[in-house]
Amino acid sequence: MRDYVSFDLQPGDKIPSETELCDHYDLSRITVRQAISALVDEGFLQKQQGRGTFVLAPRLAEPLTDPEHFLLSGFDAADPDHIRVYSAETVPAPDWITAKLGLRSAENVHKIRKVLSADGEPVAFRTTFVPVRIAPRLPQAELSQPVYALIEKLYDIEAIEADEVIEFIVADEFRADMLSVPVGHPLILVERIIYSDNGDALECSRAYYRADRFRLRHRLRRTGAEAGDLHRQVATEIASVNAGV
User: Fold this and answer.
1) Is 41 helix (H, G, I), strand (E, B) or coil?
2) 238 and 218 in contact (C-beta within 8 Å)?
3) What local confidence, expressed as pLDDT, does residue 45 receive?
4) Sequence-ordered list of residues with C-beta below 8 angstroms from that of 169, at least 6 positions apart, any chain
5) Cβ–Cβ < 8 Å for 171, 182
6) Concatenated DSSP letters of 133-197
7) DSSP classification of residue 239
8) pLDDT tens for each residue of 173-187
9) pTM as predicted
10) Using alpha carbons only, what angle is made at residue 197 by residues 193 and 202, rounded to the nearest 5 degrees?
11) 3-state SS class at 198
């Protein structure tokens, strides 16, 4: 069925009914229903109440890195017109953020949450924490821009390196509500901590992408002394997993 919806049907096409699929594959209804549910979770199909099940457009392939700036990827590379600042506030740093950013226990942080939409529906959101002592007036800036870019421009601090961790999770009630998906929907979580040249942590962010709408793409290149004159390029794609994983 994955091959069928990928190669024989077009985005927007309605798939045959469960009865027709049972007859075609000579399988029970429960088996066909499980296959359809798996393809819905993987982002190939979408169920529409009272209408049937339809083929979705391919997921957006988001590069993990960009030659223009090593941090310009995913959420930061999106069209600013599609990004909405959901909230911006200054709060005491939660314990887990204190540990991530190496803060003193009493420090305040700016907490900025943005939502990325496509085709009129939310497809990702990101929560970013920035120490107030690094960027005291940050909430007054135009926050639709990438936060790291604002820090570099407004405070003359250059981001030099970052740690990124990618995980596959399922949506709890809060994240499901933010992204208008059911509880248990598969999500891609990208956590990033950005550092300046003197080792200070500039920000910690967590971006949640709907796994039925995104996949993350990374190109690895082997060059220089390590490979001599041989240049090898390897493209890897991190695809979404279904909700049962």
Assistant:
1) helix
2) yes
3) 86
4) 186, 187, 189
5) yes
6) TTSTTGGGS-TTS-HHHHHHHHH---EEEEEEEEEEEE--HHHHHHHT--TT-EEEEEEEEEEET
7) -
8) 999 999 999 999 889
9) 0.66
10) 35
11) coil
Amino acid at 23: D
**Chain center to CA of 43:** 14
Cβ atoms of 169 and 200 within 8 Å: the answer is no
Return the structure tokens found at 179. Answer: 């992204």
Asked whether the beta carbons of 45 and 212 are under 8 A apart, the reply is no
Residue-wise pLDDT tens digits, 190-242:
999 999 988 899 999 999 999 888 877 666 666 554 444 444 433 334 333 33
Please identify which residue in the block is written with the tokens 């496509």: 118
Give the pair of three-digit tokens for residue 33. Answer: 């229903």
**3-state SS, residue 3:** helix
Render pLDDT for 76-130 as a digit per residue (tens, 0 to 9): 777 888 899 999 999 999 999 999 999 988 899 999 999 999 878 899 999 999 9
SS3 of 204, please? Answer: strand
- Report the length, in residues, of the chain: 245
